[in-house]
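Proteins fold reproducibly. Next comes a concrete instance:

***
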Amino acid sequence: MLTGDIRTRIDAIWDASWSGGISNPVEVIDQITYLLFVRRLDDLHTLEENKARTTKTPMGRRVFPDGADDRGRPYDDLRWSRLKHLAPQEMFAVVADPVLPFLRGKVVGNEAAHKEKFVIPNNMRVPVGSVIFRLFGDGSARDGGGREDTSQWESQGKSQEGRAVAVEARRLADRVIAILQPVEPARAKPKRPEPKSLFD
């Protein structure tokens, strides 16, 4: 059971989330997790900067790359040490757009996927049993493949359209790159029965 200062802080986070319009607890936990993860990445980057400054050598591993993203925003703006000083509206805009895609990776469609109406949202939550998830968690595995059902995948708390896809994935350094190819048409969603009129 939580008591004292920690309980007060957690209650304040829940209150701020509710008053900000986020009532789904899973979504609140998601947002907190992303912010904690960004803070940890910033800590690791700062440690590398300090080590490079002390040893007078180039940084061995940059968490946040030099330069800017596709929208022209410097990657340094995605660091927790910069984010925490932004106004709430600007922080939300930065976290929602550049930060989350930076953490999640990119989804790149092609013409064939467009014709098939096969879309994977940028904020897709991959299930634990997925080849992609296993490669990301297992540092020794380099590649993998298999057949998966996208109805097990979630985006914003909702399951995706059910469809079998072939997945080929490969781990490259700290990223997993995957190619998904539909192997069957999208399954039709079951139709709801028409409501009966009270006067029939």
In short: The mean pLDDT is 77. Residues 4-104 form one domain. The CA atoms of residues 89 and 179 lie 35 Å apart.
